[in-house]
Amino acid sequence: MQKSDLPEPVAFHLMSKPIGPLCNLECRYCFYLEKERLFPGKPAWGMSEEVLEAYVRDYIQALDIPVINFAWQGGEPTLLGVPFFEQAVELQKKYANGKTIENAIQTNGILLNDDWGDFLARHRFLVGLSIDGPQKIHDRYRVDKGGRPTFDRVMKGLSYLKKHGVEFNTLTVVQRHNSQYPLDVYRFLKEQGSGFVQFIPIVERMADQAEADGLVLVSPDSPRPARVSDWSVEPLQYGRFLTAIFDEWVRNDVGRFFVQLFDVSLEAWVGLQPSLCVFRETCGEAMIIEHNGDVFSCDHYVYPENRLGNVIENPLLSMVTSEQQRKFGQDKKHRLPRYCMECDFRFACNGECPKHRFMSAPGGEPGLNYLCPAYKMFFTHVDPYMRFMAEELQETRPPANVMRWARERDLKAAGKQHPGRNDPCLCGSGKKYKKCCGSS
Q1: 133: which residues sit within 8 A by CB, 6+ positions away?
Q2: Torsion angles phi and psi, residue 424, rounded to 5
Q3: CA distances (Å), 330 to each of 156, 272, 323, 336, 388, in order?
Q4: Where are the alpha helices (DSSP H) in 272-396?
């Protein structure tokens, strides 16, 4: 067999929902809680030993790469306890076959304690902590089953991560309320020591009547009458949220704090395919496996019509490379309206997530993204800064040079040649000019 005849290695990511939609919180905007109704009469939740082993074994074997990343999400995965994850780690060692195994777990932090801290540190888990901002902002939607606020318990959980030296980042859901306080949210996250920040916009549509399966939030392709939920972020406000944070970041924090969307945008400006699935030209490489072994096309497409099979019954690679999944991924590109095809920022956006494409373009063509105004605002605003950073990278200079460039640009716009004594220093230190470079 010639080398050219060999099949191309398949690249994909399979996120695990080891306890399905079960959670100890009842966040008012959560789209996954109602997935419980897809598994009626369930006597017990949690991934069985049989499913866990099949998942770990097949996932490692299916990927022809040296480093395999496992992602554990929910629901709330810590409800399964440390012993479940000890077992998962042992199975990873059993089937690693010389490959390096890395783990990440997304948690609301409520159940974290010393036992968890010890385990996570010992096995070098990366922890994603879900938190929506300072206390008043966070507690607006992130409440427990009794409707009680959770902020203090999340902060307690974070203290265990810090105590045990566990690497963590933060995931913030951007909804209608906290989108009005961008700098409060961003500065709070920095104060907690989050060096990497993810902002996830929440956009959900609610049907007037539930389906026969009890689901109220409609599927992305549903033709049923539906309205955008009261908690969903509004497009222009999301654009203002992103640009406000970017303006602070680009003058003070480049190279110090990392914001996922800003990093992904820079990838596009330097000519790379964005690494985040929602901005890629096609999708279909980020699937999920539910607690019972069912594999679905995407975290946002856990509906019966998007089920690819079950890891106990079907080889994982056959599901990943199936015609159903291939079409799912290609549809993102082929269903893009002409309005998007002709957009100056298609290279950076590619129509974003198909889940949000339920609006009509100005000419009446269907398939426009609900968040289109937000991204047009954001990409237009960041374009000069992205161009500068892309050029710095091309010349093998640090993109953090943009901080000084941005401040000099501000001075010119204000008609100044030099910063005032009490102006922020051009170097981006965060100090006043008189206390920094101006002191000499």
Answers
A1: 172, 178, 181, 184, 185, 188, 189
A2: -60, 140
A3: 44, 19, 10, 10, 33
A4: 316-320, 323-334, 338-341, 346-349, 372-394
Adjacent-strand bridge partners of 226: 207
- 256-271: per-residue pLDDT in tens? 999 999 999 999 999 9
CB 352 within 8 A of CB 369: yes
Q: Return all residues near 291 (Cβ < 8 A) that are at least 6 apart.
A: 17, 18, 19, 20, 45, 46, 47, 51
Give the number of C-alpha atoms closer than 13 A to the C-alpha of residue 247, restricted to the C-beta side: 12
Classify burial at 307, counting beta carbons within 10 Å of its beta carbon; exposed 0-12, middle 13-18, buried 19 or more: middle
Report whether pLDDT(414) > 90.
Answer: no
**Cβ(245)–Cβ(182) below 8 Å:** yes
In three state form, how does the secondary structure of 242-277 look? HHHHHHHHHHHCCCCCEEHHHHHHHHHHCCCCCCCH
Cβ neighbours for 123, distance < 8 A, ≥ 6 positions apart: 85, 89, 103
Give me the pLDDT at residue 43, please.
65
3-state secondary structure 24-93: CECCCCCCCHHHHHHCCCCCCCCCCHHHHHHHHHHHHHHCCCCEEEEEECCCCHHHHHHHHHHHHHHHHH
CB–CB of 109/157 below 8 Å? yes
- Buried-exposed string 154-173: b where 16+ CB fall within 10 A, e elsewhere: beebbebbeebebebbbbbb
Q: Is 299 a catalytic residue?
A: yes
Three-state DSSP at 169 gives strand
Beta strand 126-130 pairing with 294-296: unpaired
pLDDT mean over 282-304:
94
**In the block, residue with structure tokens 């889940």:** 355
pLDDT over 60 at 367, yes or no: yes
Considering the candidates 139, 144, 247, 299, report the single residue annotated as catalytic. Answer: 299
- 105-134 in b/e burial notation, b at 16+ Cβ within 10 A? bbbbbbbbeeebbebbbebebbbbbbbbbb
Q: What distance in Å separates the CA atoms of residue 176 and residue 232, rounded to the nearest whole number?
A: 5
- Give residues with Cβ within 8 angstroms of 98, minimum separation 6: none
Tokens of 208: 């007037």
The residues, any chain, with a CB within 8 Å of residue 421's CB and separated by 6 or more, are 432, 433, 434, 438
The DSSP H or E segment spanning 183 is helix 182-191
What pLDDT shows up at residue 427? 67
Structure tokens at 213: 């399966």
